[in-house]
């Protein structure tokens, strides 16, 4: 008696994943015709007979939820991971954390591998045409914080435009009219939204927008420090800096300290995110605090509802309001750097 042909053999022969073989056997309409034909050709050539286990492969549950983030080094993400872990563990799921600067490609790999029942994704700046591929995956994906660049998915995030506008309006109320802005990475939706909020606040209060006061950053401490140095060395006049996230703002504080520029007496500094560390730097940082726990719980519950067949992917962007936290970095009555 010869060796029985397995699903793995068919997948290897056809050059596809095991999950793709299962979909071809169970739901041919979920695959492109060329892929379906290739799989079925391998089934015929190898003499594969689908077993009940092969037919039910899609329905097997791992009780795992994958959370894919673009960089665990960003202090915002560990706080997000903790909140997501609490939300999914309450429902009896384990959390698989994946750290990848190509988070959307990684989400696609996980969807193909079936190591998790669903994926929570923090988007990245991707240039790969993945949208059609993800539509073929019979595994739910919900994005949180950063909207995916290529993958179609419901997104749960904070009110980035409004939050940035509130921060900058606060600076204007403090008497600042020369407000510099350190952006986030180009092509990242949340970064662009925060820059939009910055511009709206200026224009809505009769403050002239100055391109020379807008410096590109990448959300890291180093980029915040380098942008502050660039502003200082350019000789441009500014009395306040709004950084697109707290991590960059902390880098700004370090650069100003090195140049003995007093905060907030000479330059006020504000950030965005509300990471825990923002309350412990000196001076404590004014910021727009994202509702991390609410975002995590909403996204996790939506994913679990989809797993249970109680909800579908609408592709909506769900925005949860945060809160402006005013601290000493913009308050002249507070502590000094």
What does this structure look like?
This protein folds into three domains: 7-52, 434 Repressor (Amino-terminal Domain) (Orthogonal Bundle); 62-152 and 291-321, Response regulator (Rossmann fold, 3-Layer(aba) Sandwich); 160-289, Rossmann fold (3-Layer(aba) Sandwich), CATH 3.40.50. Helices cover 41% and strands 14% of the residues. The chain has helices spanning 7-14, 18-26, 33-46, 52-55, 76-89, 103-113, 131-135, 160-173, 189-204, 221-234, 246-258, 292-307; strands spanning 64-69, 94-99, 118-121, 141-144, 154-158, 179-182, 214-215, 240-243, 268-270, 287-289, 317-320, 323-325. A six-stranded parallel β-sheet has the order 2-1-3-4-5-11, with helices on both faces. Strand 8 (240-243), helix 11 (246-258) and strand 9 form a beta-alpha-beta unit. Helix 8 (160-173) runs parallel beside helix 9 (189-204) and helix 10 crosses helix 11. The model has no long low-confidence stretch (mean pLDDT 86).
